[in-house]
Amino acid sequence: MARVSTSSIAHSSPSGQVCLNRQLRRWLAATLRRLHPVLDTGAARCGAERYRKHFHSFGHATLLLFHGLTHGQSLRESYAAFAACPGLVVLSGLAVTAAADDERIGVSFSQFADSNTTRPAAFLASLIPPLVAQVRSRWALELSQLPPDLHVLDSTFLRLSLLLAPWAPSNGASDVPGVRVQGGYAPALDLPEHILVTDSHHNDCQGFDQLLLDDPTALAALREQTLVFDLGYYSHRRFARLRQARVHFVTRLQAQATVRVEADLPVHASLPTLSAGRITVLSDQQVTVGSAHNRAGAVLRHLRVVTAQVAPQRAAARRGATPIVYQILTDRWDLDAADVVQLYLWRWQIELFFRWLKSHVHLPRLLGYSRNAVELTVNLAIVVHLLLVLAAHDLGYPRRSPALLCRILLALAQLTPGDGQDACAGAHQLAFPGWQQEPPAPP
């Protein structure tokens, strides 16, 4: 056990805001309670409870979520502030009996920090599939400007220090050490679907195989859907596997690709309402791509290449940006040429998602410098994002936002044991569809 400092995030509340939203506090308490059995199952599967009698996985996850949701500057700061949330401490199971003037929690900071390195990161990743399922169930009937069958694949880079993370591969001064986070994203649902953490020497095409092509379940889930990606994932052999699985794709045509034009299709005038009239279609062609002499590739017939000029947004144009000509390769024949280009332009949504994770969920602030701690950091960022998406939907917010993060910070600071007891008593109106309720205890 360790004495907790008297610093508290409660003091950071706005002076005029005394009574916080009880509905948000009860939602947080009920949500954490429903995550408990999921975490227990995931921890048992990966052996996360082995040799840990006093610091169980749920308490560890609660501390991590507190750190992620309150965007503390450091683990030590979040640990010190955690005891200022009595309801959260009780709900986490980390409360211990002590004298009235002696405030303690049942784990030291060194235990907390060490567990981020030694406890398998997979225990927190076990929360991601059920949370993803919950987001899907809530937004199934929602209307969005983005097509619901659109999925984007991309990656982002997290830089590491070789001094602190000597395990990161590096070939010299020109090789920046770090890890690559690859993932699939559904923009219409604001939903990260697949996440893979690899080292910097693991290229995007290899991640493509691990994320989707070598996973029959993930590939089947994308059947008759459209996958959009950039040139880092360009591979004719992989495109052939997507076509075989009946997964549509949209990407840029590689400049070095072997292309044979089969037919020139008529070009229709672009709709003025589409992307504010930015897209001007120059040509629409039926092509065959690939060379029979390339053993590592494949020859793909009856594909479509749309060439279009895209004008910059007004703000970018004021900064001197010029129009860009795109050559878009796809197997979608049911769409207008301008719609095909617009699908590719929506790829930018995953870049905004990665920026959100880094700027507001603070993904680059690592929980440690071991491989396990880096992977745990990524898992925590995804779980925090999913919880924010669910909170926004359940509590009537337009979408997840920094403002919602601030409200959760204040709600956590004011969470009381009564809120935790309300959750334990079972708030049926906040129950998650599809999650089985625990059977009542026998008399």
Write the SSE topology.
Elements lengths: L1 E2 L18 H25 L10 H13 L5 H8 L3 H7 L11 E2 L3 H10 L3 H4 L2 H12 L10 E10 L18 E9 L4 E9 L4 H10 L2 H6 L4 E4 L6 H9 L3 E5 L6 E7 L13 E11 L10 E11 L3 H5 L5 E7 L6 H9 L2 H12 L11 H24 L7 H12 L3 H9 L18
Parallel strand pairs: 3-6, 6-7
Antiparallel strand pairs: 1-2, 3-4, 4-5, 7-11, 8-9, 9-10, 10-11
Describe the overall structure.
The protein is an alpha+beta fold and 443 residues long. Among the domains are: 2-125 and 373-430, no CATH class; 251-334, no CATH class. The chain is 40% helix and 17% strand. The chain has a 9-stranded mixed sheet, sandwiched between helices. Strands 1-2 form a two-stranded antiparallel sheet. Strand 6, helix 10 and strand 7 (248-252) form a beta-alpha-beta unit. Helix 1 (22-46) crosses helix 2 (57-69), helix 1 (22-46) packs across helix 15 and helix 2 packs across helix 14. The radius of gyration is 25 Å and the shape is elongated. It starts with a strand and ends in an 18-residue tail after the last helix.
